[in-house]
Amino acid sequence: MGEPLRIGLVGAGKISRACLDTLPRLPGLRLTAVTDLNRARAEAAAKAAEAAIETAAEAAAKAADPEFYYRPGGGPLLDMGPYYLSAPVHLLGPVVRVTGAASRPRAQRSVGSGPRAGERFAVEVDTHVTGVLEHRGGALTTLLMSFDVHAARLPRIEVHGSECSLSVPDPNTFDGPVELWRDGAWEPLAPSAGYAGSARGYGLADMARALGAGRPHRASAELARHVLDVMLTLLDAARERTSLPVGTTCSRPEPVPLVGEPSASAGHG
């Protein structure tokens, strides 16, 4: 293997920490830079790439400031949509039109833990978003993203076809059982694609592998732009209480072959 692919980490929050935990298992990648609006946090993340230095108490203190979730740029759709919209694009292809509705049941929220526990703050975005996504091939996805649900037993993603139904894992956890309903019962399916034990950061390893093989990588800028466009168009449709076309598109990513830990090809400095 040649020189590893050098990567930079943009943002040094909770999700980035999960990526840092995964990087040592991913050959062919080298973290060379970290950037964050908070310099101290960026420096801590850079050090954590070599050794875990953040304590649980420090992590909890960072997580105890929830206001940004409820300001412009936040909300359930922009927070979790990259996971739950990328998955149906992978399964069903790009989205061509969206219909949306949204609400804001509470004008204020309270900080639940940490030194600011009990402090109230204003809610500036819709916190319950629903939508119907029309895919290029004609399939429809029904979407529900909410900060106003205490608990639920709904599956994260199900796909219903003419012959059977498919239940797939939560894309925010990267792994889990796949079940197929047919002939009156659910049955587990053996994995047929994907990285075994996948976790945050595997998309980077797939990118390095793709660059070495001269093929497009799956977590591409094209896919990210399309998913962001779908989310923003859905929010516009919800505000206008209408249906709107999506201006971008993307190729449907190819399934990941069933492999163990990803490896990156040589030749990238």
TrEMBL record:
InterPro entries: Gfo/Idh/MocA_oxidrdct_glycsds, GFO_IDH_MocA-like_dom, NAD(P)-bd_dom_sf. The keyword Hydrolase does not apply. Residues 245-269 are annotated as: Disordered. It comes from the Bacteria. The keyword Cell division does not apply. Keywords: Oxidoreductase. Residues 65-166 form the GFO/IDH/MocA-like oxidoreductase domain. GO terms for molecular function: oxidoreductase activity. This is Dehydrogenase. It comes from Streptomyces iranensis. The lineage of its organism: Bacteria, Bacillati, Actinomycetota, Actinomycetes, Kitasatosporales.
